[in-house]
Structures are given as structure tokens and as C-alpha cells.
Specification:
single chain; 102 residues; mainly alpha; 3 helices; 84% helix; rod-shaped
Amino acid sequence: MLEETRQRESKAFDQVTSQGQRTLDFMQDLIRKQNDLALQREKEIREDMKQLAASEAGVAALEQKLQDQAHPVNAQADILSRREQSYFLDHPPKSQSINKLR
């Protein structure tokens, strides 16, 4: 009778241990799969960010090109004529004239 009880307890213990091990294996597998999915999603996000950065750089380059075409640089526009230069040399701004008088 004592031996039978021990066998039943041993069998029950083995079943509980086996069930616990299966649950543990299941949870570890689930965590592993979630981790793999998270790593895959992170990789996809990084690729999306690279594509977005490249796209934004292309847009910025096109905007700059459009701006350059809309406002072409005129090398002569930045140069004052001799007559204009002499006028500004002969007639300094009023703030400078007032300081000379003091």
C-alpha cells in the first residue's frame, strides 16, 4: 500500500513536472518568436528611415534647383557702377556725417 502511494505520487509529480516543462518550452518559444518579429520590424523601420532620408535629400536638392532657376544670379547686379560708387563715397550715410561733426 505504501509502495502504491509512492508510485501514484511519483507519477503525479512526473506529470506536473512534464506539464510545467511543456508550458515553459511554449513560453520560451513564444518569446523567441516575438523577439524575432521585433528584430524584423526594427530592420524594416531602419530601411524605411534610410529611404525617407534619401527622399528628403532629393526633395531638398530639387527645391534648391528650383530656387536657383527662379532667382538666377546676375554677377553684374552685385557690382555698383563707378558713378554709383562715387556717389556713395561723396555722400556717406547721415549717421557717419553726424559723428564727424561731433
